[in-house]
C-alpha cells in the first residue's frame, strides 16, 4: 500500500504560523515594577516588546500544525491493482420439455437418446464456460415457469437443468409464454446484456401469447433471442413388433416451426440455429460463445482507503497532552505558595 494526498495544495499553508508571527503587531506587556519612573508610559509605548520564540515550547505546537495540515490534505492509502470484470451478460435459457422431446432421434456414443438428454449433455459444458455471466433457467411445456432466476451460481443452474424431466410442465409447447416470461425477467437488466437462448423441437401449441407477439415485445425491450431447433431430419421407425419388417423412414422434425423460430430471432437481432445431432448442437453453443463472449478483464482498479483520521487523532491527542502538562505545571507552582502561607 502506498500513501497519496488528494489535496496536496493544502501544504502552501505551511509557513502561515511564521507569517502570523512576523506580521502581527507585537505584544505590549505592562511593566510590573515597584518603582514608578517619570514618563514611564511613554517609554513603554515607544519600545514595544516582541516576544522571542521559545523553540522548546513551540516544537509540539509545530508538530500539531503539521499533523493538521496532513489531515486536511486528505491522505489515502492506495492498495495494489485488482482486476475488475466488464459488464456481465444476463443470459436466460428456455428449454422445451414438451412430450415430443422424448423422441429418440439423437445419437450419443453410438446409442440413441431422447432430445432432452442430448440438450442436457451439450448445455452443461456451455453453462460451465459462462463464468462471469448471470444465468437463469425457464422450462416450458403447456405452461412456462421460472425454474431459476438470474444468478452467478452456475452450479445450481447445472443441477436444476439435470433434474428436468420430459412433460413436467405439460406435453404441449408454449413458446410465446416462455419468451414473455424471459422478457419480464430481463427487462430490468442493462439493455446491452439481455439475451435469451430458446431450445425447442416443435411449434407453438399452447399459451396465452403468440410467439410473434412475444418476439415484438422482446424487440421493444431490447432482448436478443437465439432460437435453436433440435431434432433429426429422418429416423427409422421400427416395423411390426419392433422388427425391420415394415420399417420406414420418417421425418421426426416435421412439426418443427423453423420459419417461426427464424422470424423470432431476426426480429430481435439474434440468430436461428438448426441442430440435427449432438455434434451440431455443440457447434451451435460454441458459436454462441463467440456471438455473446464471456466478460473479460478490461480494467484494473486500485482500492483507496481514507487515512485522514490518523493524523487528526494524533493532533488532538497531542493538544490534550499539552493542556494536561500545562495544568499540572500550574498546580505544581501553586502548592509551594500555599505551603509558605501562614
TrEMBL record:
**Which spans are transmembrane here?**
6-24, 307-325
Origin species? Aestuariirhabdus litorea
Task: Note the Gene3D superfamilies from the entry.
Answer: von Willebrand factor, type A domain
Q: What is this protein's record name?
A: VWA domain-containing protein
CDD domains in alphabetical order:
vWA_BatA_type
Quote any Pfam family the record assigns.
VWA
Which keywords has UniProt assigned to this entry? Membrane, Transmembrane, Transmembrane helix
Q: Which InterPro entries match?
A: UPF0353/GerABKA_families, vWA_BatA_type, VWF_A, vWFA_dom_sf
- Annotated SMART domains: VWA
Q: Which residues form the VWFA domain?
A: 90-288
Amino acid at each position: 500500500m502506498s500513501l497519496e494526498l488528494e489535496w496536496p495544495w493544502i501544504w502552501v499553508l505551511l509557513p502561515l504560523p511564521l507569517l502570523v508571527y512576523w506580521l502581527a503587531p507585537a505584544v505590549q506587556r505592562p511593566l510590573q515594577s515597584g518603582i514608578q519612573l517619570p514618563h514611564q508610559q511613554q517609554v513603554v509605548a515607544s519600545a514595544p516588546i516582541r516576544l522571542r520564540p521559545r523553540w522548546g515550547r513551540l516544537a509540539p505546537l509545530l508538530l500539531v500544525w503539521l499533523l493538521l495540515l496532513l489531515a486536511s490534505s486528505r491522505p489515502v492509502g492506495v492498495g495494489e491493482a485488482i482486476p475488475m470484470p466488464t459488464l456481465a451478460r444476463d443470459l436466460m435459457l428456455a428449454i422445451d420439455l414438451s412430450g415430443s422431446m422424448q423422441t429418440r432421434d439423437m445419437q450419443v456414443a453410438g446409442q440413441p437418446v431422447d432430445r432432452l438428454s442430448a440438450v442436457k449433455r451439450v448445455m452443461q459444458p456451455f453453462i460451465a464456460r459462462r463464468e462471469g455471466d448471470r444465468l437463469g433457467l425457464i422450462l416450458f411445456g403447456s405452461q412456462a415457469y421460472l425454474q431459476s432466476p438470474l444468478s452467478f451460481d452456475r452450479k445450481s443452474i447445472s443441477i436444476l437443468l439435470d433434474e428436468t424431466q420430459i412433460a413436467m410442465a405439460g406435453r404441449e409447447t408454449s413458446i410465446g409464454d416462455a419468451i414473455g416470461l424471459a422478457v419480464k425477467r430481463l427487462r430490468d437488466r442493462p439493455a446491452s446484456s439481455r439475451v435469451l437462448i430458446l431450445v425447442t423441437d416443435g411449434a407453438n401449441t399452447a399459451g396465452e401469447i403468440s410467439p410473434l407477439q412475444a418476439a415484438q415485445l422482446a424487440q421493444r425491450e431490447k432482448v436478443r433471442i437465439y432460437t435453436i431447433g433440435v431434432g433429426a431430419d429422418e429416423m427409422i421407425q421400427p416395423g411390426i413388433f419392433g422388427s425391420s419388417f415394415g420399417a420406414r423412414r420418417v421425418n421426426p422434425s416435421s412439426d418443427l416451426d423453423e420459419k417461426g423460430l427464424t422470424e423470432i430471432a431476426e426480429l430481435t437481432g439474434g440468430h436461428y440455429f438448426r441442430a440435427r445431432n449432438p455434434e451440431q448442437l455443440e457447434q451451435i453453443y460454441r458459436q454462441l460463445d463467440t456471438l455473446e463472449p464471456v466478460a473479460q478483464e478490461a480494467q484494473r482498479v486500485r482500492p483507496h482507503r481514507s487515512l485522514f483520521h490518523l493524523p487528526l487523532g494524533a493532533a488532538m491527542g497531542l493538544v490534550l497532552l499539552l493542556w494536561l502538562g500545562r495544568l499540572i505545571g500550574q498546580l505544581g507552582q501553586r502548592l509551594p505558595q500555599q505551603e509558605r502561607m501562614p
